Amino acid sequence: MNAYGTGPEWRWEWPAPGVGRLRLPRWDATAGLAVGPAGALLIDAGASLREGALLRHAAEQALRERGGPRRVTHLALTHAHFDHVFGAAAFAGAEVHGAVGLDTALTRTGTLESDAVRHGLGPREAGEAADALVVPRHLVSGEAVVELGGERRVLLANLGPGHTAHDLAVLVPGTPDVVFCGDLVEESGEPQAGPDALPARWPEALDRLLALGGPDAVYVPGHGAVVDAAFVRAQRDELARRFALS
């Protein structure tokens, strides 16, 4: 969870057909979108209710342009940091997914609110988002599949602990496969190990991430530009060195 300054404008990139990603301003967090004939899955929800509403508008506009479903039907939250979850209440009616334990982590709204204010979100915005925070009803212990119609089947994988105790990755099969990593991988800054990180387990989580996507997948970090498997492997090795792990 980082504040990297002003990010790019609101513009979807499409690393694979029907698979979008958006670099949100201010904290440069990533939101993802997987589109099928009957549904659309959003990955992460932004850092405030206002950002969540803007993200919903951007997603719905992208869906209209591609002739997909009219709204986001599913929301996957990769981990319990404010810049990825505080906009979730903007997606009314969406089925919300997260790793087992994320529901409990998100009840600690006081910690999330104080973290948001410490990283620059206004106290009023942080309080409103904390009060409206959405808790996932669909909890993933190993892997789960979200059906979006046709051949679009998205895999949710509980790969943590690592960056947090409840890290979820999202694999969208296609040409190429696209893996949304959450903050298990960061490109626009050094991976952040806060008080809720488990550094000794993080390299193992990245091993599982690489096994999930394979050598030819596109990997979408929680912050920054799209990367490849070699970048993820190098970051895995650097984390092991940083925390003096074998």
UniProtKB/TrEMBL annotation:
SUPFAM superfamilies (alphabetical): Metallo-hydrolase/oxidoreductase (SSF56281)
Limits of the Metallo-beta-lactamase domain: 28-223
GO molecular function, a single term: hydrolase activity
InterPro entries: Metallo-B-lactamas (IPR001279), NDM-1-like (IPR050855), RibonucZ/Hydroxyglut_hydro (IPR036866)
Superkingdom classification of source: Bacteria
Keywords attached to this entry: Hydrolase
Name of protein: MBL fold hydrolase
Organism: Streptomyces albidoflavus
Taxonomic lineage of the native organism: Bacteria, Bacillati, Actinomycetota, Actinomycetes, Kitasatosporales
